[in-house]
Design goal:
Number of strands: 8
Oligomer: single chain
Largest sheet: 6 strands, antiparallel
Strand order of the largest sheet: 4-5-1-6-7-8
Radius of gyration: 20 Å
């Protein structure tokens, strides 16, 4: 049996309140199903709860939150193993070997949009496997902006590079 891994780490400047919201959203998703599920309702930012219709009687509904969690496959986020905010430098650090980086990017994009961040950030992802076999390795580059997420996997990059070389070879053959 083989084990698949997804690893990423990022470091970038980020406003403190945006970093706090990002961290709290990730912690909320990481708490679902635990003994302190009710704590989710206290740490999830209200703006996020409103955006995804998770409020009931003015408070975050644990039932709505858990439905959203299942429907949107947020179980792919357990909370990064490394997440911290350096207030003096204004830098957010996070990384994981298990969370889905595309879900993390979507959450980050929501936070950036809510807090009026105007610069894009990027991070790289590695996909690996404990068993050496083709198709089980690769990676991606993910760019995130307010309300925007773009990515390109290494398979796309490889195909693009190959097509470029083939085009050059075709041009040099046609000149001969």
């Amino acid at each position: 049996m083989a084990n698949n891994y997804t690893s990423y780490a990022a470091e970038f400047e980020f406003p403190q309140k945006a970093a706090e919201d990002f961290i709290n959203i990730l912690r909320a998703f990481g708490s679902v199903g635990s003994e302190n599920s009710e704590e989710v309702c206290k740490i999830l930012p209200e703006w996020y709860a409103k955006k995804y219709d998770l409020l009931q009687d003015g408070k975050v509904s644990i039932n709505k939150f858990e439905d959203f969690y299942d429907r949107e496959e947020m179980y792919r986020v357990s909370s990064p193993e490394v997440i911290e905010y350096d207030k003096s430098a204004g830098v957010l650090y996070f990384g994981s070997e298990s969370d889905d980086p595309y879900v993390i990017a979507d959450i980050l994009s929501d936070v950036m949009q809510e807090h009026g961040c105007e610069e894009a950030i990027c991070f790289e992802v590695a996909f690996t496997c404990s068993k050496l076999r083709p198709g089980e390795f690769g990676g991606a580059a993910i760019a995130v902006g307010p309300g925007i997420v773009r990515s390109m996997g290494t398979a796309e990059m490889t195909d693009s590079l190959k097509r470029g070389i083939e085009a050059e070879l075709w041009r040099s053959e046609s000149k001969s």
